[in-house]
Amino acid sequence: MKLAISGETLSSTDSLKEILEIIIRYEIDNLELWALNCEATYSGVHPMTYRNRDIAKAKRLLKEYDINVACVAFGGALDSELTKNAELYAEELSLAVEVASELNAGIVNHYCDYICRKPQVDIALLEKYYGKALKRAEELDVIMALENEAHDITQTPDNMLKIIQTFDSKHFKTNFDATNYYQSGNEAFPDAYEILKDDIAYVHIKNGCIFNSDFGHLVECKGGTMTRSNTGKHIYYPTVDKGAVNISGLLERLKNDGYSGYCTLEPHTSRDIALKYYLEETKYLKNLGYF
Fold it and tell me: What is the pLDDT averaged over residues 242-249?
């Protein structure tokens, strides 16, 4: 397995060059690339899309620092305005697939979120948003990995499996985020993993627990609301070894089951705390012997 760091956390504070300089301090050579990590060619470029961004410059910097792109992340579904136009969304997701191919990344991590927040799976609707990009992904041999989230139709592993099986393509799989399943009231591991283990193309690594200020929890690490069985509570993001999710058990199963892909750290917190998390988490994970 290969350890990576997400470019999302630092995207609003650091340039791509600065991010690359940061991650090599932790002896990591894989980056999850976000649109904001690529320099815009003019002001007003949408923060979640790759259109009108200097991909060539990003490619040069990645080569200069000898950093691989673990995946190209497309966060368009996290924007309520962008998702109002399915045709436009499909074009932008297709472009993300093309960027992934250009940067030798075999995966595009994408979302559902504002596309469909009801609990029932609507495949006809998802086809409008994902279908065009999936055809392009099949042409370019890129995998579209749909990430599970707590507030949309992917909030249960059963729904995720139904979506994957309906699209029925080796290029449409899932990004398995165990802590997001915990946030949505599921048993993240082993139950959710067992359901989806054959369709995991990418993995996000973070941990979570229920936020409680009485326990000394930092507001900078307080996340969004939890759903289903934990509705009304907020998630809290500690380091990977200190939350409610059995991350070490998950990593052991991934390795034993032959997963050889990327496991990407994505601390949801402030920049300063994220840097401390990187230091603690990379040391902890490497000591486990999986990376």
Answer: 97
Pick from 94, 99, 104, 107: which is nearest to 38 by CA?
A: 99
Q: Which helix (H) or strand (E) holds 24?
A: helix 16-25
Alpha carbon distance, N-terminus to C-terminus of the chain: 6
How would you write 163-178 as a 3-class SS string? HHHHHCCCCEEEEEEH
Q: For the chain, give the mean pLDDT.
A: 97
Query: Residue 190: is the preceding peptide bond cis (ω within 30°)?
Result: yes
For residue 253, give the amino acid letter.
Answer: R
Give percent of the chain with pLDDT exceeding 90: 98
3-class secondary structure per residue, 44-82: CCCCCCCCCECHHHHHHHHHHCCCEEEEEECCHHHCCCH
User: How big is the CA angle at 175 (ends 7 and 193), to the nearest 5 degrees?
Assistant: 135
Q: Tell whether pTM > 0.85.
A: yes
Neighbour-count burial of 179, counting CB atoms closer than 10 A to its CB (0-12 exposed, 13-18 middle, 19+ buried): buried
Q: 277: helix, coil or strand?
A: helix
- Between 268 and 119, where is the model more confident? 268
Strands 209-210 and 107-110: unpaired
Q: Which of 72, 203, 62, 200 is nearest to 137 (CA)?
A: 72
Give Cα separations from 257 to 186, 193, 203, 253, 254 (angstroms).
Answer: 22, 11, 14, 6, 5
Q: What's the Rg (C-alpha) of the chain?
A: 18
Tell me how far apart the alpha carbons of residues 211 and 260 are, in angstroms, rounded to a whole number: 33
Residue 39 has pLDDT above 90, yes or no: yes
Query: Residue 107 is encoded by which pair of tokens?
Result: 């995966």
